[in-house]
Each structure stands twice: as C-alpha cells, then as structure tokens.
Design a protein that fits this description.
- By secondary structure, the chain is an alpha/beta fold.
- The protein has two domains: 118 residues, Aspartate Aminotransferase, domain 1 (Alpha-Beta Complex); 231 residues, Aspartate Aminotransferase, domain 2 (3-Layer(aba) Sandwich), CATH 3.40.640.10.
- Helix content is 39%, strand content 13%.
- The strands form three sheets. The protein has a seven-stranded mixed β-sheet with strand order 2-8-7-6-5-3-4, with helices on both faces.
- Helix 2 packs antiparallel against helix 9 and helix 10 packs parallel to helix 12.
- The protein is globular and about 75 Å long.
- 43% of the residues are buried.
- The model has no long low-confidence stretch (mean pLDDT 95).
Length: 383
C-alpha cells in the first residue's frame, strides 16, 4: 500500500520532503480535483454542478466531525490558525486581572492575539515553564494556575520539540477549575488524537496545510456548541447572519454554530483542495495514517540516534516531529547542506527538524542518514 501512496506524490520525483509539520505537499488526487474544478468553472462559473460551496463545505466538515468526534456545525472554515485564534481572543469577555496561560516558547500565532488583550482589557498573559516530560508539564501547569486564570491556550504538539501534551489531563483540570481550554492544533490535527468533547476543549484552531496536507491559506475554527455563548463575533458581514442570501432587510440574528465566522465569500478553490485530500486520507483511515507517521519518525530516530544525534525522539509519546542536534555538528550548516541536496527540513531552535509523512519511505530516510554521514565525514557541517 505504501509504495502506491508514494507514487501518488510527484514531490518524490524531485525531493525528500521532510517538513510536513511546516508545509506538506500535494498529491495526484488533489491535482485531479483542482483541474476538474477549473475545467467546470471555466465552462459554467458558479453554475457548475459538482463543486457547489454547500456541497464542498459539507464534504469537509463531515470528515472533520468524524475525525474529531464532534458535530459538523461546530466548525468554521477560515484562512489560518492565527485568524481562528484571533476570533477567540477578541471574542471573549474579560475583566481586569484575568490571566491567560500559554506555553513557554509558544508559536507566535498563539501569543500575539492574547497579548493584544493585555492593553485593551487589563488582563495578564503568563507562560507555563518549559518541560521535558508530561509530569513536569502538569506540575508546572498546576503551579501557574491561580484564581484569576480564565483561559489555558495550549498547543497539542510543540512546534519546536515535537512534545505531545496530555490533553485529557489538561481538560480535566480546566473542568475542575472552571477554566476555558483553547487548543492550537496546528501541529496536532491529523497527527495525534484530539477529541474535543472528551477533552473539555472549548475552542480549537488549526491550519490545513500541515499534517492534514491541505492548501496554504486555509484553516479551521472549532467552537464547542456549549461554549458558543462565551464568544461575541468581532468581525461581521453578510455571511454571519441567517438567510445570508437575502440582503435586505438587515438583521442581527447570527447563524447557529460556528458558521457565523465565515463572514463572506470563501476561497472555494481551497475548499476543493481540502475536500480532496481529506477524502484521500479518510480512505486510508486516519489511525493508519498516524501510525505510519510514527513508524517513519521512529525509523529516522533510530538512524540518527546511532550516529550520536541527541533530541532525536522525545520521551513523551509518539510524535512525527524530530528535532536533532549533535555536539560536533553546526545545525545551520547541516540544514543548509541538506536543503542543497533537495532534502527539505527546517532549522528550529538549536537543531534541525524533520517531520515525515505517509508519502515518505524508509529508503528515503536511509538516504538522509547516509548523506549526513557524508557531510560529517567531509567536515562540511563541523562546528
């Protein structure tokens, strides 16, 4: 099965693409779907029969609802994680002294929306100290919570280290202490199990183009139906209200569910892309996709650990993100040299980050390890 999947991705003809937690790649099924849409749109514009917005939206939200075990009406299709998090941060009602807890070294998209509320509302953003294990994290989290904590906004998986956070345990803490749980799932969606209803997650945001292999410039906002009342829409337009195809008279009744945050005409070409890749992944089955990601990451870990690279695989659960370093290797030089060889990875922190996906192969990962051997032997990446 995996050999067939590898052939579905043209990228394998030119690159060993190992930056899938940054930007993933397109396959032939998506390419065919986009060409079909463009052909029909050229012939019949919005009168085309196979790619209506309602149909596309339903295809996307039904698969997302199945993946996350929630309801379709709890999703809004937006542009990116940052936009979704801004809807949340700007939509909440605050009182002076409220506290927002974030991870230390959190990705900026989950920092700036909250920090912007400090001056506006007199709240305080606090950071949970960096941790290396789940227990360390939970201890640090509990120590950071006060009677003023309003929101914990957490990444499912840390973008630098690949650490998975114990979402069930965090959800229990939030429920016990009446704290809102917001999840930045950019590195988690399609990569690790996320079940908002079971984990007491009130809000969630993620981009389409990472582990779900969707289009650039598309994201998803999730709002638990029972938490909708906590948010006041801060951007409004035609798409926010009921009966949005009737422009007059004006009305103030919002659409039920998260769809009120799809405020106007969307990028339907991106919807075609996202629907096609979600259907592709669903046919494989998402648990199998996740398992394959972990298998490849573990294989690469073993290859690198045998060469004395450290941090190659964290000690806190299965993950597809490896951030590696070596005492004698200059990480920036290694990253540059690998990219020259069309081995696409990322420089993050003090290490080189790899993130394989289902279209990668063990043979490719062996090639990466062999190339690293060659670079180290030649002195090209020495400190």
């Amino acid at each position: 099965m995996w050999e067939k999947i590898q052939k579905d991705f043209k990228i394998n003809e030119n690159f060993i693409w190992l930056n899938n937690c940054g930007i993933s790649v397109m396959n032939r099924a998506v390419e065919d779907a986009l060409q079909g849409y463009i052909h029909e749109f050229a012939a019949s514009s919005v009168k085309n029969q196979n790619y209506g917005p309602g149909k596309l939206r339903s295809q996307i939200t039904s698969i997302l609802a199945s993946l996350f075990k929630v309801q379709e009406n709890e999703f809004a299709l937006v542009q990116n994680t940052a936009e979704a998090l801004n809807y949340i941060a700007y939509g909440l009602d605050y009182k002076t002294g409220d506290e927002i807890l974030l991870l230390e070294k959190e990705y900026p998209s989950n920092v700036y929306p909250w920090r912007s509320q400090e001056k506006r509302h007199g709240i305080k953003v606090k950071f949970i100290p960096d941790s290396r294990t789940e227990q360390e994290f939970l201890t640090a989290l509990n120590s950071s919570i006060t009677e003023h904590t309003k929101v914990i906004s957490l990444s499912a998986v840390h973008w630098l280290s690949g650490m998975r956070y114990p979402l069930h345990e965090v959800g229990k803490i939030c429920k016990e202490k009446n704290i809102l749980f917001c999840l930045d799932a950019a590195q988690g969606a399609g990569h690790v199990d996320i079940f908002p209803a079971e984990m007491n997650i009130s809000f969630m945001a993620f981009s389409a183009w990472k582990w779900l292999m969707g289009p650039l410039g598309m994201g998803v906002l999730y709002i638990d139906e029972s938490a909708m009342h906590h948010l006041q829409p801060n951007l409004l337009s035609t798409g926010s209200v009921v009966n949005d195809s009737e422009y007059l008279p004006y009305r103030e009744t919002y659409k039920p569910g998260a769809a009120r945050y799809e405020i106007s005409t969307s990028n339907y070409l991106a919807w075609v892309y996202f629907a096609a890749i979600l259907q592709y992944l669903q046919k494989i089955e998402f648990p199998i996709v996740q398992s394959r990601i972990y298998t490849l990451a573990s294989f690469l870990h073993d290859q690198l650990a045998s060469r004395n690279f450290t941090g190659a695989l964290p000690n806190y659960g299965a993950t597809g993100i490896l951030n590696i370093s070596h005492p004698k290797v200059d990480s920036q030089k290694l990253w540059l040299e690998l990219n020259k060889e069309n081995i696409v990875c990322a420089l993050r922190g003090d290490g080189v980050r790899f993130a394989p996906h289902i279209f990668n192969s063990e043979n490719q990962l062996e090639q990466v390890a062999t190339k690293i051997d060659s670079l180290m032997h030649s002195g090209a990446v020495s400190k």
